[in-house]
Specification:
This protein is of the alpha/beta class. The protein is globular and about 55 Å long. 44% of the residues are buried.
């Protein structure tokens, strides 16, 4: 027993839980291009709230990838188009803490008079703008926080919620191979299997449904890899003329292949988008802190997995990001070519 009679969760998390208990109608939002942790946590939370007799809708800036249909078909999932959100008293923001990461959904969320609760495991920079938060930056995945919340609320998970939690865990730990995998992660994964989750079925849905064009697309990307800093830094770029949908190229798959090279410590994957921005995904397998690398660029995330969106063409963004990455290695970058423009940060971050 706690001798001080205080909850080990702390007053901030207790206040967030109280909003979940008191609320009746919920909008649950995630970041742009929602990944497995985001969608898995959302699906699990919807099922938890529904079992408590509450109404809950998922509104995300983008549609879910087809491979996550085993989760979205059993919950009210919508890709936001325009207009006002449904009347709700609590908005839950999952797997992010920067409102800008919801893209076109941000004005509707900001306009709503609902209480805002952030549930996240990313590092936040700047002043809190939400009402309450349930945050643990040491957690392997946001879905792990949803599991903790269900335990405290004493709400049993059904198999759909269990699939959501399991999906969060496996996608954010690289199927338990990343360094964020810990005892709690593996214990909770085992609990989800005991509740009826079939790991082989989840793996098949996530990774075994590619088209015949998938291997050539990966090959074209990898053929452009550059190794810098004596092989410690790998950089791969994807121009806007070679845009692939998520059914063809999984960012983490490209990053994992490059991280498998023995000398490589850091991988930078830059995708040029048609809106005049470039998406940066950065991964580390050493003590190199990619979160510290992307923060000055307007990005964020974790020490070993971070990202950012920067405004500019691919050449100028690449020059800026590579110069910063080399400087962190203690290597003086070469001067930019005459006339090269400096990329501008858009202030939007992305992470695993």
């Amino acid at each position: 027993m706690n001798p001080t009679n205080e909850s080990p969760l702390g007053p901030d998390k207790l206040r967030a839980l109280e909003l979940l208990r008191r609320g009746r109608r919920f909008v649950i939002s995630g970041h742009a291009r929602p990944d497995g942790d985001c969608i898995g946590a959302q699906a699990a939370l919807v099922r938890i709230l529904s079992s408590m007799g509450k109404e809950a809708w998922i509104y995300n800036p983008d549609p879910a990838e087809a491979r996550f249909s085993y989760l979205t078909r059993d919950v009210q999932y919508r890709a936001y188009q325009s207009g006002d959100l449904p009347v709700h008293d609590v908005a839950v923001l999952l797997d992010f803490s920067e409102l800008s990461r919801t893209g076109p959904l941000a004005p509707a969320l900001a306009k709503s008079a609902s209480k805002k609760v952030v549930i996240d495991h990313h590092i936040h920079h700047g002043e809190p703008w939400w009402d309450e938060a349930f945050v643990d930056t040491s957690a392997a995945a946001t879905g792990l926080l949803i599991h903790r919340i269900a335990k405290v609320l004493d709400v049993p998970l059904d198999v759909i919620a269990a699939r959501g939690v399991y999906t969060s865990l496996v996608t954010d730990t690289g199927w338990f191979k990343y360094s964020n995998t810990d005892a709690e992660t593996l214990t909770v994964a085992g609990e989800m299997v005991a509740l009826g989750v079939k790991p082989s079925e989840i793996f098949d849905a996530l990774y075994q449904q590619r088209s015949a064009q998938h291997p050539p697309a990966i090959g074209r990307l990898l053929s452009r890899v550059e190794y810098l800093a004596e092989g410690r830094l790998a950089v791969v770029t994807q121009p806007s003329s070679e845009t692939y949908d998520s059914d063809l190229v999984d960012t983490d798959e490209v990053l994992d292949i490059l991280r498998s090279v023995r000398a490589v410590e850091v991988v930078l994957y830059l995708r040029e988008l048609k809106d005049g921005t470039c998406k940066l995904s950065a991964r580390s397998k050493s003590t190199y802190d990619v979160n510290a690398l992307v923060r000055p660029l307007g990005g964020g995330g974790h020490k070993k997995a971070s990202g950012a969106t920067l405004r500019g063409d691919l050449a100028s963004v690449r020059a800026q990001v590579v110069s910063a990455a080399l400087a962190a290695f203690g290597i003086e970058p070469a001067l930019p070519a005459p006339g090269a423009s400096r990329a501008k940060s858009s202030g939007e971050s992305a992470a695993r």
